[in-house]
Amino acid sequence: MSAAQRLQEVEARLAELSRSKEDLKAQIVHVVSPQPDVEETIAADSGIDPHEVAAGLAAAVDAKLHVKSLKELQEPMRELERAARTVVRSAAEGAEAYWQAVGNACSCYRTVGPLCSAVESTPAAVEHTVLQDLSQQLLSRAKVSLASIDKACREHLERRLSECGWPPPLAAPKGSVLGTEKGTSFWERLEKQGGGLLDGLLLSLAALTMVQVAVEERTGEPAGECLWFMDVMAAKLEERLRAHFASNRKTSDINQPEWLFATALKLIREHADGMAFFEGRLQTQPVDYTLAFQRRIQAAVKGLLRSSHLPALLSLGSRDLWRDWAVAAAQFDRDVAEAPFLVREVGVAYSGDVQYSCLNVFCERQEWMVAWCDAESHALVAEVEELMAAPDAWEPPKAQDWEEDEPEAASRGGTASGHELWPPRCAQGVWSLVESVVQRVEGLGIEHRAHYLRNVAGPGLQEVLRKLGAIVKQAEAYKQLTAPNWAAKVCGCACAAHYFEHHLQELVYNSSLLEVGGAQAVFGKEMSTLVGLRREQCMKLAKAVAMEFGHTSSSYRCWSLADLSLLGLASRRSVFLQQR
């Protein structure tokens, strides 16, 4: 049965319902009257429920309006389908024919769009299967036509880009015109070459942008940044990156993470700034084409990490490689944030671009994050052990020079009694490691920060606590808390515990941790343990010093009062003789 026949069937059904309207009108009027027994009387006489009839009539009215919307949509839909076929044919013809075809297709879509919205807003009471089928058919035809227009415009743009030499080679060949001139963008150099290539490319870019504007106008919201053409350009670059770093190429060496990130950074530095060439050529409103291009290169790198590099790291199981790739990804994010063409503060750019961060890809799958956190925590614990076992680990802080160092640094000189914090050198080194871990979470999503800190910095701090407690227990077991060869370590442990406790409390003001509940939520257990450890060690030291003092002065307490009197008399006589 054709669509026209289905519509005739629906119209016949509507006519039948309309004929019964007059017969039931009086009954509906009585239903809404104030007499309570009218409804039962009418229902008993006619055998029909007036409420059901009223609901059926309301549904019939809605269905009639919906049929009207479907009939209004049919002819514009045919026009849109013809326009879409014309766009596909004209893509292989001249530029003028192609431009006119795209413009006509956009005009047809602007007509069809509101009609499609009217069909989509079908009342829930309209449940006729024929109407539902017709609605879905017409809406799907609109989607197919729009998809064919979009595909034709994208393919046309891809051909124009290839003719212009886009994407550029990742390493420009020697003697190439587009790769040797400095200070100008790819597009400016293309414009100087002439030949009409750039004009044809701009027309293709404008055609795809016109299609996007028409599509976004249907939403009823102000048109935003129309950047479909940028997606096409970035897709070709990503395709070249994938080919360059394919598994069968030497450039895919998993031991060289910097190759991928250096290549991507080179593309951003060479071409992102040049995207400003399109400002005012495609859209009237200001658009940051530089930032849009940068975002798409970052997305391409993230796609490569997801598809090949991180799965390869997981299969290899090398902790060192996981750390190397994470360090390279974090540095790439930092370099992009510090790009000179981005007129933003580096800190704001870095913290605000987490969704584009390559480092954040390491957290997207649980097995990746577990492997990465394991590698980082294992390395941190090893570095903590190395620092605390160094020959000068328990030496006091290095003396500062007023002339060579800042006044703040020089103020840390002197003796321990003049300072609240007097950490041994190992404590300063360990905290710098923990601080670097805390800084790294700036490149992670909020939902991953607490997990990363607990599983990386947490084991490092626990190793510190274990070492500090073990040293004091060992000295206590040998009863050497105040012995000269143990005093530096034992006192250093108490100072180190106080130092770590202080800096963990200072993390309360760290913006990266505020969104995950603050430092207390992440390091609450370690902070409580440090407070208890410091107090316990100080009490043990005080007790040991008091006992040592009592033991040393015990012989003086054995003298009698008479002995002290004789000693005083002898002392005064000696002074008298010396004066004479």
From TrEMBL:
Residues 393-421 are annotated as: Disordered. It comes from the Eukaryota. InterPro entries: RINT1_Tip20 (IPR007528). One of its GO terms (biological process) is regulation of ER to Golgi vesicle-mediated transport. GO terms for cellular component: Dsl1/NZR complex. This is Uncharacterized protein.
